[in-house]
Amino acid sequence: MKLRMNILSKILPYLGRVGVGLLFALTSCEKEISMDYHSVDPLYVVEAGISEEGAVARISQTQNVTDEIGKRPVSDAQVIITSDNGEQCTLHLDSAGCYSSSKIKGVEGRKYTIKVQIGDYVTESTSQMQEKFSIDESYMYKEQMLEDQVVYYHVGVSGYKTDTIGYFYALVMRNGEPYKWSVIGNRWFDEMTSINVGCFVYCDLDKDNKDILKDGEEISVEVRKIDERTYDYLYALLIAGHSSSNPIRNFTNPSTLGYFSAYHSTRQVPLRFEKNSLKFYEELNIGK
User: Fold this and answer.
1) Is the pLDDT of residue 28 over 50?
2) DSSP states of 207-239
3) Which residue of 5, 177, 244, 247 is surrounded by the most CB atoms within 10 Å?
4) Confidence (pTM)
5) Of 82, 140, 143, which is closest to residue 275 (Cα–Cα)?
């Protein structure tokens, strides 16, 4: 099998002005590479969470890289979530590979354990429900990076205890669908944590790239306060795509990928994207 690679320019997920923007490739090259893929045993992938709205778990199996479908939904699992106060709930199957229940809701400070059983296969994970917070500001801005301009979605969150490190996950939605995400630990912040999610790059070479936003599209953001175990997994997943390594384990069974998170979530009202209205950060007069 031959894989044709055409590398133009690529920018990693970044944390904007509070993090480090990493630029990987600035030149264009094209090369044919012969690749010999080996078959591997499938792994289960569990992506599950509990919030004040209820619990959801999506379960699938990995496929070989040569298969047409990347993941295969698993619809014969038993999924149980238990609280440290003894409350227990079995999630029901909604659609292929998707389980949910609104009968159990996350309560701040409580620890929750998810147990997934598929035949003789059993795996578990634990997460602690986080405290509430508020989004105090949000806006989009652009920055110059060499010959390109990078656009960021900025969110400022506060209202949580700052005597310990808080961990956050931010998901940018594009027309109601997941678009870009990032995680951050507020080790260097006091009363407000700034999260900057890199969205897309202005680049003439990539002007037809499907990742580039277009005028009129609806852009919104959801921010979750997560525990340290979830942060560690998601951060490892974030960098795994650029280091060709696997993320750290979040479940007891080593044949399980994915994570379980007990989190508080806050969403922003969608805004309509207009490229010409974007300003450079220095033009926003933030804090002046």
Assistant:
1) no
2) TT-TTS--TT-EEEEEEEEE-HHHHHHHHHHHH
3) 247
4) 0.77
5) 140
